[in-house]
Specification:
The protein has 187 residues and is mainly alpha-helical. Helix 3 runs parallel beside helix 6 (102-123). It contains nine helices and no strands.
Length: 187
């Protein structure tokens, strides 16, 4: 149990959890009467961004030299980011008058967590927030056409059951999990 406490402290998990709660409530509270997929995507992206702050430790060389099975811990950490963010958004939206389909929240949380893993692997844990926020910032400006390219580019805003959007999220989640689990945050 001691390793879990030390790991949580070294990865700033208490701060990330508090920031996730504040960000989620901070977006939901003013938008609760007009809760829609765009606001949900913004909330999830902001939540994953703040929860991903600890995807690398203070000393990457120390992490690599330790005789601990880091891949399991890295996978659990990244999965926790996606699950906690999605569960918090699903819970908070039930307090309002409208709710977005849980399949959309689940799909988007998984894909955004994968993007955070990819960003942490490529640019370092301190930049884990970049890809989720960048993709969320681009999605609303994609022209609303019924093409596969649009469904892939704006996958965050597609309705539940859109095959291309679902597969995009699955590919992002899987590739981010594999990359971050295997290599960890870049030095």
């Amino acid at each position: 149990m001691r390793w879990a406490v030390l790991y949580a402290r070294s990865r700033q998990l208490p701060v990330a959890a508090a920031a996730l709660l504040v960000v989620t409530l901070g977006v939901w509270l003013p938008a609760r009467d007009s809760w829609n997929p765009v606001v949900v995507a913004m909330t999830l992206a902001a939540g994953v961004a703040v929860a991903a702050i600890g995807l690398s430790g203070q000393d990457a060389d120390l992490d690599r030299a330790a005789a601990l099975p880091w891949p399991v811990r890295r996978f659990a950490h990244l999965a926790l980011v996606g699950v906690a963010t999605g569960a918090l958004v699903l819970g908070v939206q039930e307090l309002g008058v409208t709710a977005v389909d849980s399949a959309i929240v689940t799909r988007d949380a998984a894909g955004l967590a994968g993007l955070a893993g990819l960003a942490a692997t490529v640019a370092g844990g301190q930049f884990g927030w970049t890809l989720p926020l960048a993709w969320c910032a681009i999605s609303p400006f994609v022209p609303p056409e019924d093409t596969t390219a649009t469904h892939v580019t704006a996958w965050l805003l597609q309705p539940a059951g859109t095959t291309a959007a679902t597969w995009t999220a699955v590919v992002l989640a899987a590739s981010g999990a594999v990359a971050y689990t295997g290599w960890g945050g870049r030095r």
